[in-house]
Design goal:
InterPro entries: ADC_synthase (IPR005801), Chorismate_C (IPR015890), IsoChor_synthase (IPR004561). This protein has eight helices and 23 strands. By secondary structure, it is α+β, with helices and mostly antiparallel strands. It has one domain: Anthranilate synthase, CATH 3.60.120.10.
Length: 427
């Protein structure tokens, strides 16, 4: 394990796997798994060949500082340049792969990149194995492990997070007043909740439940951040980039008629349309200078997930020569969908009124490979899992028309993702 800015030389080998295509989660040992899953496809890894831990920037640093992204990009470039790579598959996610989690704010601790010793990936019906060692021709000891059964999570005790619901509604009301005074257009406020269990939480249980319940989302586990995000910050394959903007939310209805009515209300809502428009324009402004081509639809569509429905706009771009995936991540983070508008004003307000450090919540989470291919999401519908404790996060966009009770209800809908993943089903 190494956390220096100069990575060691690594021997990387990727080979195709044959046989039964079981859930990728089944390959994982207990411990600290790495995962990025979408339906049956994705990547899982374990063991640490090398990692990079980036400490917080000094207090007073601009909330839009991007040094952690440029430091990570240089580290990955050095790692790839010094690696002995034998890749027999040649798909995105083969060869050397670094899983990463970046903090929402530059002054927070918790940014880390990890290259696993062993990785199993699957895409379009093909499955592969990547091993990483310090010496060519050898195998990592982590390649052979006993498949211990996943541990049931058991009873869960819940308590309020940093603010009580009433205190958080007060923060929303205060934010609305600041917006109406003209100090900013939008701020995304989050709250937390805490779960405690009798024994250590087996992340594999959470990954499998989330993967099965939300196959259209990206289920992730990176350095303690675990969740299922609907929001793809970017996918990079070659010079092509795709992204998905989500802003504006309603719960799912109890029946088809109620569900349709909620969706129609969302599509007709001036408040939600304004919130979504700000998020789309934030992405357009950030990505424009990095792209040779940029395609942004004029109107959003309705995206229905298992627990909520969103206004959604897919974006496509062709990046300019020399622009890396992490360059694009740095430019896009934080989107208006998780920060606000203007960005710096909103981030300072968030730090002032939320009463907590977000850590990796609402920060970029995902992976990048040695060829520059990448998938990065925004860490939403997630929790920070440490031993027998999990800290859940949920938020919503606050604009001039926001109502504190409605915003609180929206966060409760979003909490359901991780609450249900942590709850044992009835016998």
């Amino acid at each position: 394990m190494n956390s220096a800015l100069t990575p060691p030389e690594l021997a990387v080998r990727t080979v195709e796997l044959r046989g039964r295509a079981e859930s990728l989660v089944n390959h994982l040992p207990a411990g600290a798994p790495l995962a990025w899953l979408s339906g049956e496809d994705g990547l899982v890894g374990w063991g640490e060949a090398v990692r990079l831990d980036l400490g917080p920037r000094p207090e007073g640093t601009s909330p839009t500082d991007t040094a952690r992204f440029s430091d990570a990009a240089r580290w990955i470039e050095g790692l790839v340049a010094g690696a002995d790579v034998r890749d027999e598959v040649g798909l995105p996610g083969t060869g050397p792969v670094a899983f990463g989690t970046f903090t929402f704010a530059p002054t927070s601790p918790g940014t880390a990149l990890v290259v696993p010793r062993v990785l199993v990936g699957r895409k379009d019906g093909r499955t592969w194995l990547t091993t990483v060692t310090d010496t060519p021709g050898t195998h990592p000891p982590e390649l052979v492990h006993s498949r211990s059964p996943a541990r049931p999570i058991g009873p869960v005790t819940w308590r309020d997070g940093s603010l009580t619901p009433e205190q958080w509604k007060g923060a929303v009301a205060h934010t609305v007043s600041r917006i109406r005074d003209g100090r900013l257009d939008k701020a995304v406020l989050a709250r937390d909740a805490v779960a405690a269990t009798d024994g250590p939480i087996d992340v594999r249980v959470l990954l499998e439940r989330l993967r099965l319940r939300f196959p259209s989302c990206f289920t992730f586990s990176v350095d303690g951040m675990v969740g299922a995000t609907p929001e793809l910050l970017l996918r990079r394959e070659g010079d092509r980039l795709t992204s998905l903007v989500l802003a504006g939310t309603r719960p799912r209805g109890d029946d088809e008629e109620a569900d349709r009515a909620l969706g129609e209300d969302l599509m007709a809502s001036a408040k939600d349309d304004r919130e979504h428009h700000l998020a789309v324009e934030s992405l357009r402004t950030a990505l424009g200078p990095l792209a040779e081509e940029l395609d942004v639809p004029g109107t959003p569509h309705l995206l229905r997930l298992a627990n909520v429905q969103h206004l959604a706009t897919p974006v496509r771009a062709r990046l300019a020569d020399g622009v890396s995936a992490l360059d694009a991540v740095a430019a896009l983070h934080p989107t208006a969908a998780v920060g606000g508008t203007p960005t710096e004003t909103a981030m300072r307000l968030i730090a002032e009124v939320e009463g907590m450090d977000r850590g990796g919540y609402a920060g970029p989470v995902g992976w990048v490979d040695g060829a520059g291919n990448a998938e990065w999401g925004i860490a939403l519908r997630c929790a920070r899992v440490e031993g027998r404790n999990a800290r859940l996060y949920a938020g919503g966009g606050i604009v001039a028309g926001s109502d504190p009770d409605s915003e609180l209800a929206e966060t409760e809908s979003k909490f359901r993702v991780m609450r249900e993943a942590l709850t044992e089903p009835p016998a």
